[in-house]
Write a structure and sequence with these properties.
The chain has 446 residues and is α+β, with helices and mostly antiparallel strands. It is 30% helix and 12% strand. The strands form two sheets. A nine-stranded mixed beta sheet has the order 4-12-1-2-3-11-9-8-5, with helices on one face.
Protein backbone atom coordinates (compact mmCIF):
# COMPACT_ATOMS: atom_id res chain seq x y z
CA UNK A 1 0.00 0.00 0.00
CA UNK A 2 1.22 3.46 -0.73
CA UNK A 3 3.30 4.94 2.05
CA UNK A 4 1.06 7.99 2.31
CA UNK A 5 -1.87 5.69 3.00
CA UNK A 6 0.07 3.42 5.33
CA UNK A 7 0.71 6.24 7.79
CA UNK A 8 -3.01 6.90 7.94
CA UNK A 9 -3.71 3.19 8.36
CA UNK A 10 -1.36 3.00 11.34
CA UNK A 11 -3.11 5.99 12.93
CA UNK A 12 -6.46 4.29 12.37
CA UNK A 13 -5.22 1.09 14.01
CA UNK A 14 -4.12 3.04 17.07
CA UNK A 15 -7.55 4.49 17.68
CA UNK A 16 -9.69 1.57 16.52
CA UNK A 17 -11.05 -1.07 18.89
CA UNK A 18 -11.87 -3.46 16.09
CA UNK A 19 -9.74 -6.50 15.41
CA UNK A 20 -9.13 -5.71 11.76
CA UNK A 21 -9.55 -2.99 9.14
CA UNK A 22 -10.87 -3.24 5.62
CA UNK A 23 -8.22 -4.11 3.06
CA UNK A 24 -8.73 -0.88 1.14
CA UNK A 25 -9.44 2.74 2.01
CA UNK A 26 -11.91 5.09 0.41
CA UNK A 27 -10.62 8.21 -1.31
CA UNK A 28 -11.69 10.30 1.68
CA UNK A 29 -9.86 8.02 4.12
CA UNK A 30 -6.80 7.86 1.92
CA UNK A 31 -6.51 11.62 1.94
CA UNK A 32 -7.09 11.94 5.65
CA UNK A 33 -10.51 13.57 5.41
CA UNK A 34 -11.60 11.57 8.43
CA UNK A 35 -10.16 13.76 11.14
CA UNK A 36 -8.07 11.96 13.74
CA UNK A 37 -8.92 14.61 16.31
CA UNK A 38 -5.29 15.53 16.86
CA UNK A 39 -4.13 19.13 16.97
CA UNK A 40 -1.52 20.47 14.61
CA UNK A 41 -0.53 23.35 16.87
CA UNK A 42 2.98 24.02 18.08
CA UNK A 43 4.12 23.10 21.55
CA UNK A 44 4.55 26.24 23.62
CA UNK A 45 6.56 29.46 23.19
CA UNK A 46 4.04 30.80 20.69
CA UNK A 47 4.75 34.09 18.90
CA UNK A 48 2.44 36.96 19.77
CA UNK A 49 -0.09 37.51 16.98
CA UNK A 50 -2.30 40.56 16.52
CA UNK A 51 -4.09 42.61 13.88
CA UNK A 52 -1.67 43.06 11.01
CA UNK A 53 0.19 39.80 11.60
CA UNK A 54 0.40 37.67 8.49
CA UNK A 55 1.98 34.51 7.19
CA UNK A 56 4.43 35.77 4.59
CA UNK A 57 5.51 33.88 1.51
CA UNK A 58 7.70 30.93 2.49
CA UNK A 59 7.27 31.85 6.16
CA UNK A 60 5.86 29.99 9.17
CA UNK A 61 2.07 29.56 9.12
CA UNK A 62 1.31 30.67 12.67
CA UNK A 63 -1.76 32.71 11.69
CA UNK A 64 -3.23 29.89 9.58
CA UNK A 65 -2.76 27.48 12.49
CA UNK A 66 -4.49 29.93 14.82
CA UNK A 67 -7.39 30.39 12.39
CA UNK A 68 -7.74 26.64 11.86
CA UNK A 69 -8.08 26.06 15.60
CA UNK A 70 -10.55 28.95 16.04
CA UNK A 71 -12.64 27.42 13.25
CA UNK A 72 -12.51 23.99 14.88
CA UNK A 73 -13.78 25.43 18.16
CA UNK A 74 -16.55 27.42 16.46
CA UNK A 75 -15.26 30.95 16.99
CA UNK A 76 -14.32 31.75 13.38
CA UNK A 77 -16.48 31.06 10.32
CA UNK A 78 -14.39 32.75 7.63
CA UNK A 79 -11.68 30.87 5.73
CA UNK A 80 -8.14 30.58 7.08
CA UNK A 81 -6.17 33.01 4.94
CA UNK A 82 -3.03 33.74 6.95
CA UNK A 83 -4.11 37.35 7.56
CA UNK A 84 -4.85 38.48 11.13
CA UNK A 85 -7.71 40.91 10.49
CA UNK A 86 -10.74 42.12 12.40
CA UNK A 87 -12.66 38.84 12.06
CA UNK A 88 -9.74 36.90 13.55
CA UNK A 89 -9.36 39.51 16.31
CA UNK A 90 -13.08 39.20 17.16
CA UNK A 91 -12.77 35.42 17.24
CA UNK A 92 -9.78 35.63 19.61
CA UNK A 93 -11.68 38.08 21.83
CA UNK A 94 -14.64 35.70 22.01
CA UNK A 95 -12.34 32.77 22.80
CA UNK A 96 -10.60 34.71 25.56
CA UNK A 97 -13.89 35.76 27.15
CA UNK A 98 -15.27 32.22 27.05
CA UNK A 99 -12.08 30.73 28.50
CA UNK A 100 -11.54 33.17 31.38
CA UNK A 101 -8.68 35.12 29.81
CA UNK A 102 -8.22 38.87 29.64
CA UNK A 103 -10.05 39.88 26.44
CA UNK A 104 -7.43 41.75 24.43
CA UNK A 105 -7.90 40.34 20.93
CA UNK A 106 -4.17 39.59 20.90
CA UNK A 107 -3.14 35.95 20.63
CA UNK A 108 -0.28 35.87 23.11
CA UNK A 109 1.50 32.77 24.40
CA UNK A 110 -0.94 32.11 27.24
CA UNK A 111 -3.95 32.44 24.90
CA UNK A 112 -2.49 30.05 22.34
CA UNK A 113 -1.38 27.56 24.98
CA UNK A 114 -5.00 27.16 26.09
CA UNK A 115 -6.34 27.40 22.54
CA UNK A 116 -4.34 24.37 21.39
CA UNK A 117 -5.01 22.36 24.53
CA UNK A 118 -7.78 19.87 25.24
CA UNK A 119 -9.07 22.26 27.92
CA UNK A 120 -10.13 24.86 25.35
CA UNK A 121 -13.87 25.61 25.53
CA UNK A 122 -15.90 25.65 22.35
CA UNK A 123 -17.93 28.67 21.30
CA UNK A 124 -21.41 28.86 22.85
CA UNK A 125 -24.40 28.49 20.54
CA UNK A 126 -25.94 31.86 19.73
CA UNK A 127 -29.63 32.09 20.52
CA UNK A 128 -32.28 34.72 19.98
CA UNK A 129 -30.34 36.56 17.27
CA UNK A 130 -32.24 35.36 14.22
CA UNK A 131 -35.03 37.26 12.51
CA UNK A 132 -37.56 34.67 11.31
CA UNK A 133 -38.54 36.56 8.12
CA UNK A 134 -34.92 37.18 7.19
CA UNK A 135 -34.00 33.59 7.94
CA UNK A 136 -36.84 32.26 5.78
CA UNK A 137 -35.93 34.58 2.91
CA UNK A 138 -32.26 33.60 3.11
CA UNK A 139 -33.17 29.92 3.06
CA UNK A 140 -35.21 30.45 -0.10
CA UNK A 141 -32.50 32.55 -1.75
CA UNK A 142 -29.99 29.76 -1.10
CA UNK A 143 -32.45 27.11 -2.27
CA UNK A 144 -33.26 28.95 -5.51
CA UNK A 145 -29.64 29.74 -6.37
CA UNK A 146 -29.42 33.45 -5.61
CA UNK A 147 -27.26 33.40 -2.48
CA UNK A 148 -23.92 31.93 -1.51
CA UNK A 149 -23.30 31.16 2.13
CA UNK A 150 -25.53 30.07 4.97
CA UNK A 151 -28.83 31.41 6.25
CA UNK A 152 -28.24 33.04 9.64
CA UNK A 153 -31.13 35.50 10.02
CA UNK A 154 -28.80 38.50 9.86
CA UNK A 155 -28.86 40.90 6.92
CA UNK A 156 -25.38 41.58 5.58
CA UNK A 157 -23.84 42.45 2.24
CA UNK A 158 -24.23 38.89 0.94
CA UNK A 159 -27.96 38.88 1.70
CA UNK A 160 -28.49 42.34 0.20
CA UNK A 161 -26.70 41.34 -2.99
CA UNK A 162 -28.83 38.20 -3.23
CA UNK A 163 -32.05 40.18 -2.73
CA UNK A 164 -31.03 42.64 -5.43
CA UNK A 165 -30.29 39.84 -7.88
CA UNK A 166 -33.56 38.10 -7.01
CA UNK A 167 -35.49 41.29 -7.76
CA UNK A 168 -33.71 41.76 -11.06
CA UNK A 169 -34.38 38.14 -11.97
CA UNK A 170 -38.07 38.43 -11.17
CA UNK A 171 -38.79 41.83 -12.63
CA UNK A 172 -36.44 41.98 -15.58
CA UNK A 173 -34.99 38.66 -16.72
CA UNK A 174 -38.29 36.85 -16.31
CA UNK A 175 -40.83 39.63 -16.40
CA UNK A 176 -43.16 37.71 -18.72
CA UNK A 177 -43.28 34.71 -16.42
CA UNK A 178 -44.60 36.89 -13.61
CA UNK A 179 -46.87 39.16 -15.63
CA UNK A 180 -49.83 37.82 -13.64
CA UNK A 181 -48.56 39.69 -10.60
CA UNK A 182 -48.24 43.04 -12.38
CA UNK A 183 -50.73 45.84 -11.86
CA UNK A 184 -53.28 45.71 -14.73
CA UNK A 185 -53.77 48.63 -17.10
CA UNK A 186 -56.79 50.69 -16.01
CA UNK A 187 -59.97 50.16 -18.05
CA UNK A 188 -60.77 53.36 -19.99
CA UNK A 189 -64.07 55.02 -19.15
CA UNK A 190 -66.67 54.93 -21.98
CA UNK A 191 -67.29 58.09 -23.98
CA UNK A 192 -70.79 59.41 -23.33
CA UNK A 193 -72.88 61.76 -25.40
CA UNK A 194 -74.02 64.96 -23.71
CA UNK A 195 -77.61 63.66 -23.64
CA UNK A 196 -76.84 60.25 -22.23
CA UNK A 197 -77.50 59.40 -18.65
CA UNK A 198 -74.47 58.31 -16.62
CA UNK A 199 -73.98 54.55 -16.72
CA UNK A 200 -72.46 52.65 -13.82
CA UNK A 201 -69.09 51.15 -14.81
CA UNK A 202 -67.40 48.36 -12.87
CA UNK A 203 -64.17 49.64 -11.36
CA UNK A 204 -61.28 47.23 -12.02
CA UNK A 205 -60.02 45.66 -8.83
CA UNK A 206 -56.27 45.80 -8.45
CA UNK A 207 -54.38 42.80 -7.10
CA UNK A 208 -53.80 42.73 -3.38
CA UNK A 209 -50.17 43.82 -3.93
CA UNK A 210 -48.31 45.37 -6.80
CA UNK A 211 -45.14 43.49 -7.64
CA UNK A 212 -43.87 46.41 -9.68
CA UNK A 213 -43.57 48.48 -6.52
CA UNK A 214 -40.67 46.32 -5.35
CA UNK A 215 -38.55 46.94 -8.43
CA UNK A 216 -35.40 49.00 -8.38
CA UNK A 217 -33.06 46.10 -7.67
CA UNK A 218 -31.84 47.39 -4.32
CA UNK A 219 -31.09 45.03 -1.47
CA UNK A 220 -34.00 46.00 0.75
CA UNK A 221 -36.48 43.41 1.93
CA UNK A 222 -40.00 44.21 0.76
CA UNK A 223 -43.39 42.67 1.49
CA UNK A 224 -43.57 41.47 -2.11
CA UNK A 225 -40.24 39.66 -1.87
CA UNK A 226 -41.29 38.04 1.41
CA UNK A 227 -44.47 36.77 -0.22
CA UNK A 228 -42.34 34.75 -2.62
CA UNK A 229 -40.42 33.34 0.34
CA UNK A 230 -43.64 32.45 2.18
CA UNK A 231 -45.16 30.77 -0.86
CA UNK A 232 -47.93 33.35 -1.31
CA UNK A 233 -46.45 34.00 -4.74
CA UNK A 234 -45.21 30.98 -6.65
CA UNK A 235 -41.57 31.01 -7.78
CA UNK A 236 -41.10 29.26 -11.12
CA UNK A 237 -38.10 26.95 -10.64
CA UNK A 238 -37.52 25.91 -14.23
CA UNK A 239 -37.15 28.44 -17.02
CA UNK A 240 -35.09 26.62 -19.63
CA UNK A 241 -32.40 24.01 -20.20
CA UNK A 242 -28.90 25.07 -19.04
CA UNK A 243 -25.79 23.52 -20.60
CA UNK A 244 -22.14 23.93 -21.58
CA UNK A 245 -21.43 27.26 -23.27
CA UNK A 246 -24.25 29.19 -21.56
CA UNK A 247 -23.52 32.47 -19.77
CA UNK A 248 -26.46 34.14 -18.06
CA UNK A 249 -28.55 34.40 -14.90
CA UNK A 250 -29.72 30.79 -15.18
CA UNK A 251 -26.11 29.59 -15.11
CA UNK A 252 -25.46 31.65 -11.97
CA UNK A 253 -28.47 30.03 -10.30
CA UNK A 254 -27.36 26.50 -11.18
CA UNK A 255 -23.78 27.19 -10.09
CA UNK A 256 -24.73 28.85 -6.79
CA UNK A 257 -26.97 25.95 -5.90
CA UNK A 258 -24.22 23.46 -6.74
CA UNK A 259 -21.95 25.52 -4.51
CA UNK A 260 -24.38 25.48 -1.58
CA UNK A 261 -24.68 21.70 -1.93
CA UNK A 262 -20.89 21.23 -1.96
CA UNK A 263 -20.35 20.16 -5.60
CA UNK A 264 -18.90 23.30 -7.22
CA UNK A 265 -16.35 25.55 -5.55
CA UNK A 266 -16.62 28.86 -7.40
CA UNK A 267 -19.61 30.11 -9.43
CA UNK A 268 -18.51 32.37 -12.29
CA UNK A 269 -21.54 32.67 -14.57
CA UNK A 270 -19.96 30.57 -17.34
CA UNK A 271 -21.03 26.95 -17.83
CA UNK A 272 -17.75 25.11 -18.49
CA UNK A 273 -16.12 21.77 -17.78
CA UNK A 274 -15.96 22.24 -13.99
CA UNK A 275 -19.69 23.00 -13.83
CA UNK A 276 -20.54 20.11 -16.14
CA UNK A 277 -18.58 17.58 -14.07
CA UNK A 278 -20.05 18.93 -10.83
CA UNK A 279 -23.55 18.61 -12.26
CA UNK A 280 -22.88 15.06 -13.49
CA UNK A 281 -21.87 14.09 -9.97
CA UNK A 282 -25.00 15.79 -8.59
CA UNK A 283 -27.07 13.79 -11.05
CA UNK A 284 -25.30 10.57 -10.05
CA UNK A 285 -25.83 11.20 -6.33
CA UNK A 286 -29.48 12.09 -6.87
CA UNK A 287 -30.46 9.20 -9.17
CA UNK A 288 -30.70 11.23 -12.39
CA UNK A 289 -29.29 10.63 -15.85
CA UNK A 290 -25.64 11.78 -15.84
CA UNK A 291 -25.87 14.10 -18.84
CA UNK A 292 -24.12 17.18 -17.47
CA UNK A 293 -27.10 19.18 -18.76
CA UNK A 294 -29.46 20.95 -16.34
CA UNK A 295 -32.78 19.86 -17.81
CA UNK A 296 -36.14 20.28 -16.09
CA UNK A 297 -35.90 17.11 -13.99
CA UNK A 298 -32.38 18.03 -12.85
CA UNK A 299 -33.33 21.59 -11.92
CA UNK A 300 -36.44 20.52 -10.04
CA UNK A 301 -34.25 18.25 -7.91
CA UNK A 302 -31.36 20.72 -7.69
CA UNK A 303 -33.56 23.53 -6.35
CA UNK A 304 -35.44 21.30 -3.92
CA UNK A 305 -34.96 21.00 -0.17
CA UNK A 306 -34.26 17.26 -0.40
CA UNK A 307 -31.36 17.51 -2.89
CA UNK A 308 -28.51 15.26 -1.74
CA UNK A 309 -25.31 17.10 -0.82
CA UNK A 310 -21.75 16.23 -1.76
CA UNK A 311 -19.01 15.53 0.77
CA UNK A 312 -16.44 17.32 -1.39
CA UNK A 313 -16.02 19.65 -4.35
CA UNK A 314 -15.51 18.20 -7.82
CA UNK A 315 -12.16 19.09 -9.42
CA UNK A 316 -9.97 17.24 -11.92
CA UNK A 317 -7.53 16.35 -9.12
CA UNK A 318 -7.05 16.39 -5.37
CA UNK A 319 -3.63 16.87 -3.76
CA UNK A 320 -2.49 15.11 -0.60
CA UNK A 321 0.69 16.10 1.27
CA UNK A 322 2.31 13.71 3.75
CA UNK A 323 4.48 15.66 6.20
CA UNK A 324 5.98 12.41 7.53
CA UNK A 325 6.92 11.08 4.10
CA UNK A 326 7.70 14.44 2.46
CA UNK A 327 5.65 13.48 -0.57
CA UNK A 328 2.80 15.03 -2.56
CA UNK A 329 0.21 12.60 -3.89
CA UNK A 330 -2.10 13.43 -6.82
CA UNK A 331 -5.51 11.76 -7.03
CA UNK A 332 -7.71 11.95 -10.13
CA UNK A 333 -11.50 12.42 -10.15
CA UNK A 334 -13.18 9.36 -11.68
CA UNK A 335 -16.81 10.46 -11.59
CA UNK A 336 -17.42 9.04 -8.12
CA UNK A 337 -14.46 10.26 -6.09
CA UNK A 338 -10.72 10.72 -5.99
CA UNK A 339 -9.97 7.02 -5.94
CA UNK A 340 -7.02 6.78 -8.30
CA UNK A 341 -3.50 7.94 -7.47
CA UNK A 342 -1.79 9.10 -10.65
CA UNK A 343 1.34 10.91 -9.44
CA UNK A 344 3.73 11.14 -6.51
CA UNK A 345 6.17 14.04 -6.04
CA UNK A 346 9.09 14.35 -3.65
CA UNK A 347 8.85 17.62 -1.68
CA UNK A 348 10.29 19.72 1.13
CA UNK A 349 7.84 21.11 3.71
CA UNK A 350 8.46 23.40 6.69
CA UNK A 351 11.45 22.71 8.89
CA UNK A 352 11.28 22.78 12.69
CA UNK A 353 9.90 26.10 13.87
CA UNK A 354 8.28 26.77 10.48
CA UNK A 355 5.75 23.96 10.34
CA UNK A 356 3.57 23.54 7.27
CA UNK A 357 0.00 23.65 8.69
CA UNK A 358 -2.01 20.43 8.69
CA UNK A 359 -5.57 20.67 7.47
CA UNK A 360 -7.81 20.62 4.41
CA UNK A 361 -7.73 23.71 2.20
CA UNK A 362 -9.26 25.00 -1.02
CA UNK A 363 -6.18 26.29 -2.82
CA UNK A 364 -5.85 29.92 -3.85
CA UNK A 365 -4.25 28.88 -7.14
CA UNK A 366 -1.68 30.67 -9.27
CA UNK A 367 -0.21 33.86 -7.85
CA UNK A 368 1.93 34.88 -10.83
CA UNK A 369 1.17 35.49 -14.49
CA UNK A 370 4.49 34.02 -15.57
CA UNK A 371 6.79 31.34 -14.21
CA UNK A 372 8.95 33.41 -11.84
CA UNK A 373 8.19 34.39 -8.25
CA UNK A 374 10.50 36.55 -6.13
CA UNK A 375 10.97 36.11 -2.36
CA UNK A 376 12.00 39.57 -1.27
CA UNK A 377 12.84 38.51 2.30
CA UNK A 378 15.40 36.02 1.02
CA UNK A 379 16.45 37.65 -2.26
CA UNK A 380 15.83 34.49 -4.25
CA UNK A 381 13.41 33.13 -6.84
CA UNK A 382 11.25 30.07 -7.48
CA UNK A 383 9.10 28.98 -10.38
CA UNK A 384 5.36 28.23 -10.61
CA UNK A 385 4.14 29.67 -7.31
CA UNK A 386 0.71 28.32 -6.43
CA UNK A 387 -1.04 29.36 -3.22
CA UNK A 388 -2.32 26.66 -0.87
CA UNK A 389 -3.49 28.97 1.93
CA UNK A 390 -2.22 32.30 3.24
CA UNK A 391 1.50 32.52 2.61
CA UNK A 392 1.86 28.75 2.18
CA UNK A 393 2.68 27.95 -1.43
CA UNK A 394 3.59 25.16 -3.75
CA UNK A 395 6.65 26.28 -5.70
CA UNK A 396 9.76 24.93 -7.33
CA UNK A 397 13.18 24.55 -5.77
CA UNK A 398 14.99 27.84 -5.27
CA UNK A 399 17.05 29.97 -7.65
CA UNK A 400 19.54 32.65 -6.63
CA UNK A 401 19.12 36.28 -7.60
CA UNK A 402 20.60 35.68 -11.06
CA UNK A 403 18.08 32.90 -11.85
CA UNK A 404 20.96 30.77 -13.10
CA UNK A 405 19.80 27.24 -12.34
CA UNK A 406 18.25 25.93 -9.10
CA UNK A 407 20.42 26.01 -5.99
CA UNK A 408 22.11 22.72 -5.18
CA UNK A 409 21.07 22.92 -1.54
CA UNK A 410 17.32 23.17 -2.30
CA UNK A 411 17.54 20.34 -4.85
CA UNK A 412 19.39 18.05 -2.43
CA UNK A 413 16.89 18.87 0.34
CA UNK A 414 13.90 17.44 -1.54
CA UNK A 415 12.50 14.57 0.49
CA UNK A 416 13.12 16.23 3.87
CA UNK A 417 11.85 19.26 5.77
CA UNK A 418 13.73 22.35 4.65
CA UNK A 419 11.40 25.27 3.86
CA UNK A 420 9.90 28.10 5.90
CA UNK A 421 6.45 26.55 5.59
CA UNK A 422 5.91 26.27 1.83
CA UNK A 423 5.95 23.03 -0.15
CA UNK A 424 8.95 22.93 -2.49
CA UNK A 425 8.98 20.66 -5.53
CA UNK A 426 11.16 19.77 -8.47
CA UNK A 427 10.58 22.27 -11.30
CA UNK A 428 8.55 19.90 -13.52
CA UNK A 429 6.38 18.81 -10.59
CA UNK A 430 5.64 22.41 -9.55
CA UNK A 431 4.76 23.20 -13.17
CA UNK A 432 2.34 20.26 -13.32
CA UNK A 433 0.35 21.58 -10.35
CA UNK A 434 0.51 25.13 -11.74
CA UNK A 435 -0.84 23.98 -15.13
CA UNK A 436 -3.44 21.41 -14.07
CA UNK A 437 -4.99 22.41 -10.76
CA UNK A 438 -7.48 25.31 -10.88
CA UNK A 439 -8.23 27.69 -8.04
CA UNK A 440 -10.10 25.91 -5.24
CA UNK A 441 -8.49 22.51 -5.78
CA UNK A 442 -8.62 20.57 -2.50
CA UNK A 443 -5.27 20.20 -0.74
CA UNK A 444 -5.07 17.89 2.28
CA UNK A 445 -2.00 18.20 4.51
CA UNK A 446 -1.40 15.43 7.06
Amino acid sequence: MKRFLSALLIAALMISSTAALATSLTGAEALGLVDSGENSGLSGNYPTLHVGSRDGDDAAAYVVMLQNRLQELGYLSSAADGQYGQLTESAVLAFQEENGLTPTGVADDSTQSILYSSAAKTAPVREGMQDSDVLLLQQKLVLWGFMNGNADGIVGDTTKTAISEFKEYIYTTNAAAYAAYATPEPTPEPTMSPDAQPVAVDTPIEPETQIASASGYDGEITDEVLKFARGEYSFQIYQRLVQTGDRDAEVWRVQRRLRSLGYLYKPDGSYGALTENALKYFQKKNGLKESGVADQATQEKLFSADAIKSAEYVFPYKLGISLDEQRVYVYEWDGSGYNKQIKKFKCSTGMDGYATPSGTYQAGGRITVDEWYYFKDYNCYAKYAYRIVGGILFHSVLYNSSKQGPTNSSVRALGRKASHGCVRLAVDDAKWIYDNCPEGTTVVIR
